[in-house]
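Assemble and predict.
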Amino acid sequence: MDEVRLIEIAEDIHADNELVARELRIRLGDEKVFLVNLMSAPGSGKTRTILRTIEELQTQLRCGVIEADIDSKVDAEAVAAEGISAVQLNTGGFCHLDATMVAQGLDQLELADLDVVVIENVGNLVCPAEFDTGAMLKVMILSVPEGDDKPLKYPLMFSLCDVLLVNKIDYLEFDLSDFDVAKLRERVRKLNPEIEIFEISAKTGEGVGEWAGWLSREAKRFLAD
Amino acid sequence: MDEVRLIEIAEDIHADNELVARELRIRLGDEKVFLVNLMSAPGSGKTRTILRTIEELQTQLRCGVIEADIDSKVDAEAVAAEGISAVQLNTGGFCHLDATMVAQGLDQLELADLDVVVIENVGNLVCPAEFDTGAMLKVMILSVPEGDDKPLKYPLMFSLCDVLLVNKIDYLEFDLSDFDVAKLRERVRKLNPEIEIFEISAKTGEGVGEWAGWLSREAKRFLAD
């Protein structure tokens, strides 16, 4: 009986959230801010990917970051140390961000001075997939050590993202994880034929230019509209 | 307003679950089955760790496995292929297991023929920490590529587990992740001074004997009571 009750409640929360997310997207359209929701499991390299990506973007676009964690502010500190506008949201146990929390984060940034804001969602391949944050673009990271079978186990996340970043490709040469990139691509495309896939190493920088170039074009198209 | 409502609901569900978990633990005490709840982020190596551990235990203890995933049955198939009793629970989108789901899984195993049952929880460092499954022992895995900062970000999981398995220590020699084992231990002990920590590689087998030996002693103490 627990199960049924939980699902009903979740639907209510989702319905409210959809509304808030839609309103937030309209507000961001007016304010000309391109919002990106970055999701992954813990330890996939979200923070380092954000730093590398913004390094590439910042000659052309003004970027800010909303960091979300259950606890601590280590990620926002790491981002701010690079001179990037950053806000830390502590979810206090919550396993995902919703649109209301994101709106609270955005209120703390000077949006008039920003073109792109990247949300680093809570490290979790499950719950964040179910909540629209108001972002225009949903991006996920899968890192090589996590294994190429993850689309089979967390299909929703792979199904709804616009972009998959396969991170830590520098691990491939050590043959520690038996990771098969072709098999991964096949599994992901089966769930989501339209998804953009980039192979990167946020550590070495490999592949980041191509991904950042694509993102920059998407953001500029939005800002020019 | 969403936040407050969600917290209230979660407390109700937790209260019900505590009751079911307590009853399940009494039942397992009567039936002499030692239940282990294994939790980690996606891709930390839960399935391979279970296989390696049972390989060590099975000359002395009869072992079964409950696999939980949002979707797919690849893990249960991998376990069953090794001749181990396995049940797959598909949570249908749920991000964690609760005691009711675990009881349903146990109903499908021949408990009279088993001494130890290991639950492979949904890959998630957040939500499973909040739900008592009825297990006597809570074990978590953190794998080296995830990074040594994870106790700062997911403190609840580290605080409540009895055992931490630091997996994929074969990655340490490649210096890809800047992982500092001493720093990790310090962070974990600060949250949880009593926790047992084992460094293992489920792939190479390094350290698994020591962990399995400890687990075997705990299980036998329980079974002898």
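Chain A touches chain B through 46 residues (CB under 8 Å).
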